[in-house]
Each structure stands twice: as structure tokens, then as C-alpha cells.
Amino acid sequence: MLKLLIVDDEQIERDGLQVILQKAFPQLEIYQARNGKIAVQVAAEVKPDLVMMDIQMPGMNGLEAIQQITSTNPFIKFVMITAFDMFDYARQAIKLGVKDYLLKPSRISEIEETVGKILMEITEEQRSLKVLESTLPLVETDVVTQLLFDHVHDVHLDMLVDMLDISSTHEPFVMSILLPQSGENLYSLIKEKVRKSASGWVGALYGRQLPIIVFRKPDCSFRSQAISLAKDILSLKKVSSNDEWFVGIGNVCDSLDQVRQSYQESLIATMDSSLPVKYRFYHDVPVLGGTENKLQSKQREKQFLDEIRLGKWDEVLKKIMDLIQRCENEGTDLLQTQQRVLELLWVAARVMSEMGVETETPFFSYQSQDYRQLRSESDHLLKQMRTSYGEHYEQLEADTIHQIKQHIVKHSHEDISLETLGRKVGLSPIYISKMFKEKLGINYIDFLTECRIEKAKKLMADPEKSLKEITFEVGYHEPNYFSKVFKKMVALSPTEYRRTVLGKKG
């Protein structure tokens, strides 16, 4: 139900308008205020969609009231009510965001036509907002991708948490799900399980791996929550009749800024998927060898994953060889050492797959007879992976990043996702995110935001366009989110910026 606020110091005027409008629009919820000060209070309480505001009132006049109301909600629409000799004043008010005006006295047909037109606009905009529901899966996968492989600006995170309707705590953790080869068919079923738990965001499926950012629930422990969700997901094994499932669970972080660490931990927890219980916490991953501190060992593993992503193959080789040497010095069983090295290589192959690099799953062709053979075979497998990595980069066209930039600039008003861009240029979403950061020094969401805000600034020079219209035209579905992002980027609210552009003083 739409809400309308009538503001006029003459009660007969207010009551007359209410009778006319209630008859023409019986579903309309109507409120009244007898002066500007009360109008500001009522608007804050009921949040009307439309305000019919008299200009000349004792105390706070109509324009002053509009300025105060729009300072907290810049997307309310206004119709000014003015006497004939205030006509020029009313026209100036339109430049401040007032949608239309009525002259006193007005014919009933004029009132109905003016208000009806604006109510139709509001209804259409609200219908457009519902489109957001269909785009939420794209929003969700984009945010997970950005958080785990890049960085999302805090202003986006705050709003996206609200948009995705997740009760966010400041204690997120990541679960990495390893699926069978035909895992694409299970994606929607897993999303439904997570949605019912109302506790997490599901990322995009890359190869066999599906990351999920989970938020701690205050009414249960971390382990019990994670085990419950893992068992829910693993119950889908019956659907696939496949035993290749496994769930790795990273530690809880203090904030979303640190969630990438939990993701790396969840990957490490999936290294041995042959365990009878098909889930494992990172905290429970055993350390190979007895002389190394457990924390140091796991920090080394996380650094190993970063070096794979960055293509630091000499460092990767050194870490593998250091591991083999450490195991040999400690007298570790050779077969156990070979299995440990293979687990690390599997994780490396998974990370490469996330980046869009196709490589064969590494396997030792035979059981090593001694540590010398293990070193040689490990070196051979790494060289194969390094070759795949190099060939992938060489095949990329030189203008790929330029092509992506041009597409975003041209289509910034649309719901562009990393997956959409990936399909356009034949690259994985994670790789595009990585390329943006390396080549442009900016992440994908911030670049898209800059394009939208620049377009919004140009549109604000047109006094006939309302801020709400501009919000939708540049690609945002939620006016309050647009206002928040705009102020973060420009250091002025949309209303303040528009006054500056139109030569008005706040």
C-alpha cells in the first residue's frame, strides 16, 4: 500500500485533498501535517512515498521542510502546492527534486491526474525493485568470488549483507565442498540447503569445488553449526549415488576482510578426501613430521596456495622439495611422504582450475623406491603444471582487459556479473577478478561502481530527472544503497551534489 502525506496549514485544504484522493485512489494510505516541522516528524515515522507540500506556511516553509526530509530520505517524491503568484518559485523547487506542482485552486481532474501519474511511477519503480530478487544469485556468487579472491569495498558489503537477507555476524568461516564430476546438477540443491539454514552465501562452482561463506549463529557452537550444515549437504550424496563428496571447513574469522584465510584453510582440509567421515576441520588436519610447529606448518601451506595463484613456480618447487627433505630428515615413511606431496599437488591443480587454467590431475606414475625418485617425479609433475599455466597466459589476447573494460563502461547500467563477463571472453570469473587487480590496480566491483557514479553525476545536471529515476537508470535497484555508495565515492550525498551542480546552496 502506497503512503501519501498532505502538508498544509489550512485544515480545510488538507481535508479537501484527502477526500478527493481517497475517492480516486481508495488503496492509498493518507496522512496529514499542519506545518513543515510536523511534516518532518511524520515523514520520519511513516516514510511516505509521496508528499504534497504547501510552500507558504508559518514557521518552517515548504522548501525548508523538503530539505530536511530529503536529508534522511532523498527518494521521497514531492508535489508542491502553490498560489499563482508563487509560480516561478515552484518551478525552482522542481530543480531541487520536486516532481510536480499544483496551483491553488486546482480542479479535481488536475489533482487526480498529477497524483495518479506519480503514483504510477512509484508503482513501476517498486516493480523494478522486485527484479532484484532474480539477480540475487548473481550478487551472491559475485560477492563470494570477490571476497575469496580479491577485495570488496566495505560500503558494498554493508548493503549486500542487507540485500541477501543473511543475519550476518562478525564471525564468518568458509566451507569448501568437493563434488563429483557431474556436480553442476547438484548446485541448485546445495544452494537450497544453505538457503534453508539462513546462514551463508554460496559461491560459483569451479570444476569440482564449491565455496560457501557461512556466518556464525549465536545460539550454537562453531563446530556444531558447521557439522550440521556439512551433514545436510552430504545427505545429497543419495541423489548422486557417488562417494566423491568431501567438505573442508576453515576456521572462524573476526571479519569478512579475513575470510580469504578461512577459505585457504578449508582447501587444505580437503586434501585427503579418502577419510571415512566426509568432512574435516582445518584445525584437525595433522601436521606431517614432529619437529615443526603446527601453526608454522599451516601458515606455510596457505602461502603455498598464494604462490600457485601468483605463478611463483620456483617458490612452489622449493616448498615441495623442502617438505620432502624435512620428511627424509625425520625418517617419515616414504609412502606417507609421497601421499602428502600428492595432496599438495591436487590442491595446486584445484587452485589452477579456479583461475581457468586447464591441467591434468597430477598422479605419480609409480610408487617411489627412494627419496631421490620422489624428488624427480615431483619435479616432473610440477613442470607439467607450470607448462599448463604458462600456455594459458600466452593464449590470452592482448586486448582482453580492454575488451572487458569497454563492455562494463557500455553496459554499466545492467546487472553485470563476473560470470557474465567470463562467458563473454571465455575466462573464469576468478581469473577476470585477478586480472583486474593486477592490470588496473582496482577490483571489478569498484570499477563498475566508478562507471555508474560518473554516469549518475552527468544525469544530475538534468533538473527534470529525480534522484530515484537516476538510481534505476545507472543500474542500482535500491535507492538507499545508491545514496550510500554515492556519498562514499563523491564525499557528498546525491542531494548535496545536485545542489552544487545546479548552482544551489545547501
UniProtKB/TrEMBL annotation:
GO BP, sorted A to Z: phosphorelay signal transduction system
4-aspartylphosphate found at: D54
Keyword Cell cycle applies: no
InterPro entries xrefs: CdaR_GGDEF, CheY-like_superfamily, Homeodomain-like_sf, HptR, HTH_AraC, HTH_AraC-typ_CS, Sig_transdc_resp-reg_receiver, Tscrpt_reg_AraC-type_HTH
Keyword DNA-binding in annotation: yes
UniProt entry keywords in alphabetical sequence: Cytoplasm, DNA-binding, Phosphoprotein, Transcription, Transcription regulation, Two-component regulatory system
GO CC entries: cytoplasm
SUPFAM superfamilies, per database record: CheY-like, Homeodomain-like
Subcellular location per the Swiss-Prot or TrEMBL entry: Cytoplasm
Primary site of residence: cytoplasm
Domain HTH araC/xylS-type residues, every copy: 402-500
Residues in Response regulatory domain copies: 3-119
Name of the protein: DNA-binding response regulator
Organism: Fictibacillus phosphorivorans
